[in-house]
Amino acid sequence: MKLEVNGEITQLNEGASLHDLVIKLDIVGQRIAIEVNQEIVPRSQHALHKLNAGDKVEVVRAIGGG
Amino acid sequence: MSEQNDAMVIAGKRYLSRLLVGTGKYKDMQETRLAIEASGAEIVTVAVRRTNIGQNPDEPNLLDIITPDKYTILPNTAGCYTAEDAVRTCRLARELMDGHDLVKLEVLGDQKTLYPNIVETIKATEILVKDGFKVMVYTNDDPIVAKQLEEMGCVAVMPLGSLIGSGLGILNPHNIKLIMEAANVPILVDAGVGTASDAAIAMEMGCEGVLMNTAIAGARNPILMASAMRKAIEAGREAFLAGRMPRKRYASASSPLEGIIG
């Protein structure tokens, strides 16, 4: 299935969870926050949260800024 | 007065440093870390961005260098031009910081001036305060707006000295004084400081603290400037507490007039 991750079309297997996406992005264990269709999904729920085709996912982290 | 007795209190937490620093525009993580250590800052701002933007795979994560156990991390909403985007960013920041809910709200008006959009700032403040955030708000130097933001529940109000990244110093000290006179929450100058004397002036005026980024990161030697800023903030604070002498139009001799030879 296709979904949008940080503005880019991304391919994932049907039934994939948010944690599967985190593995695919190679950011397991990093300090990140994720929003699916503008709703925050808490880190504790990543493995339980099933993604759907067309979902819009934002994955963010802290970077330098004032 | 000992340092211990002169803490700055924000949202119920005591800080011995009145200098708040950003983490943007540094050459690399090493320079970021050294500059922040030299500044003595306890509150450090960070931006929230997509993981694939500006990421160097070899570079460690900022929060592994500037760690939340050592610093109070203050996520900002830089780059947001609407209340909606700012609120979304704050909610992501809270998740990122495991529920830590102190945020720096800035909703900008345009890219040329990065001047705050007050209408959107007020809208975002209302939502964030209701949602339990502790909001330190970036605003213009309008005393009425500053008071309204305080009354809405912001834990600190942070008027600009001059435009973000301009280094022009505090262009309207009279307004900053009006804001401080009316305030019941800490007033910090955010943006505009160019060099150490600007920071000292803000503190001599009685500001609770100063937030800066480019003045340090944009200096030829950022680590040395961070140290200069630490001293300027401390010197300015002590001068404020000491109370300056009155200005006079004519000279007043420092040495006794009696016993002059001849």
UniProtKB/TrEMBL annotation, chain A:
- CDD domains (UniProt xref): Ubl_ThiS (cd00565)
Q: Which InterPro entries match?
A: Beta-grasp_dom_sf, Mopterin_synth/thiamin_S_b, Thi_S, ThiS/MoaD-like
**What species is this protein from?**
Neptunomonas antarctica
- PANTHER family, per database record: SULFUR CARRIER PROTEIN THIS
- This chain's protein is named Sulfur carrier protein ThiS
From TrEMBL, chain B:
Q: In which pathway does it act?
A: Cofactor biosynthesis; thiamine diphosphate biosynthesis
Thiazole synthase ThiG domain mapped to chain residues: 10-256
User: Keyword annotations for this protein?
Assistant: Cytoplasm, Schiff base, Thiamine biosynthesis, Transferase
One GO MF term on file is: thiazole synthase activity
What cellular-component terms does GO give this entry? cytoplasm
Q: Which SUPFAM superfamilies match?
A: ThiG-like
Give the matching InterPro entries.
Answer: Aldolase_TIM, Thiazole_synthase_ThiG, ThiG
List the subcellular locations: Cytoplasm
* Catalytic activity, reaction form: [ThiS sulfur-carrier protein]-C-terminal-Gly-aminoethanethioate + 2-iminoacetate + 1-deoxy-D-xylulose 5-phosphate = [ThiS sulfur-carrier protein]-C-terminal Gly-Gly + 2-[(2R,5Z)-2-carboxy-4-methylthiazol-5(2H)-ylidene]ethyl phosphate + 2 H2O + H(+)
- Cited CDD domains: ThiG (cd04728)
Task: Name any Gene Ontology BP term.
Answer: thiamine diphosphate biosynthetic process
- What domain of life does the native source organism fall in? Bacteria
Which residues are annotated as active site? K104
Q: What's the Enzyme Commission number for this chain?
A: 2.8.1.10
Top-tier EC class: transferase
Q: Which residues bind 1-deoxy-D-xylulose 5-phosphate?
A: G165, A191, G192, N213, T214
According to its UniProt entry, what is the function of this protein?
A: Catalyzes the rearrangement of 1-deoxy-D-xylulose 5-phosphate (DXP) to produce the thiazole phosphate moiety of thiamine. Sulfur is provided by the thiocarboxylate moiety of the carrier protein ThiS. In vitro, sulfur can be provided by H(2)S.
Q: Which family does it belong to?
A: Belongs to the ThiG family.
- How is the quaternary structure described? Homotetramer. Forms heterodimers with either ThiH or ThiS.
Q: How is this protein named in the record?
A: Thiazole synthase
